[in-house]
Every structure is written in C-alpha cells, then in structure tokens.
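worker-3 :: picked YkoP-like domain-containing protein
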Amino acid sequence: MPNRAARAVFDAWEALFHRALHLEELEPGTEHLFFVTRRRYLGRPFEVDGIAVRPGDPVVEMHMNNALIERALREDANVVRAIVRLLRQARVSMPALARVVQQEKFHDAHVLYGITMIHRGIEHFGFHTYPLRNPLVRAVTSWHLTNILKMVNPDADHILQTHRDVLQPKLVVASKQKIIEMFGEGHLAGREAEMSSAQGRGEAVSLDS
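worker-3 :: tokens ->
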C-alpha cells in the first residue's frame, strides 16, 4: 500500500496534469478508463486506417485514467490479471468514447491517439500500436510513467523488472470512424456479440499482440 506522502503527491500531480491539459471526462460523474482533449498533433507523421496524420493536424488525444490503473495494479499483484481487468474496463468505456468523439468540438479531428504502457490486447478495440521512435520522447515518457507507478505501488521495481516487455510505452492510435463503427449506437449490439464470442475463446483478453 503506498504511503500517505506518495498518495498525496500522486493526487496533486493528477489534478495539475488534468488542469494543464484540459482533460475531459467521457461522462461526468462516471469513471471510465479514458480522458480526452482536442489537440494539434506534434509528433512524427503516421497513417492509420487510411488516414494520414501530420504535425499540426487536429486529433483526439486520449489519456488513461491513472487512478484506475493504480487501483488495478495495487489490488492484484499479478500484472497479467491486472491488465485483463483494465481491458474489461476499456470494453465498458468504448461506447462512451464513441459518443464523445462525435461531438461538434471534435468534428475536424479524424484520429485518436495516446501514449500508454497498458496496450497489450487493445487491438480488439480497433486500435493499432506503434513504437515510440523519438529517443527523447521515449525516455521522458518511460520516466514519467515509471515514476507514476512507483508513487502508487510499493512493488513497482519488481513489476518493472519482471514485466518490462509488457510495460513498454507505445503510441496507440485509431481512426475516429473505426471507433464509431465498432462502438457507436447501432453498431454496438453486433460488436458486443462478436467480442463476447471472442472472449469465450480466450481471444479478447489475449496479451499477445
């Protein structure tokens, strides 16, 4: 269990981070795995689902709910089980994400992107993963995410040593249209049946990308 000082630092950092980046909840008052904001993309060009993204293009920037990640890693010492739990939470959050990206404020943003350590199995939700190719961005991101984990989990060093291959930060991207097609109203019922069938075969929570 993290000590009170570490908990206070974590909570203060999260509040400052959310204000600085103007992060928005998917549904006010409901806890979801993602926060979003509209931003101009500043990284290297990439393409996803046939859409080219270049520096300056508007995008939907996603940020993981670190409180949910912290809780999952604190309550289950097995990292694989904790990630499976987070994937289940992602499944719950995707319809809300699909609704939000259809709002007028995101009308000119055609791609969602984010950077996270929790990415194994996320392809089942329409996302693609790419390595962070910029050495500086990779180093700073790894340092930031590693220190968040250390603040909230006393076994962070052991977790990072034994699961380094799983907890490598990556760029996670998807087209807005893909997310709407998979999880928007009118598409969700069929997708739920498909994912339930895949989960029954052990696919939806697979950690092998």
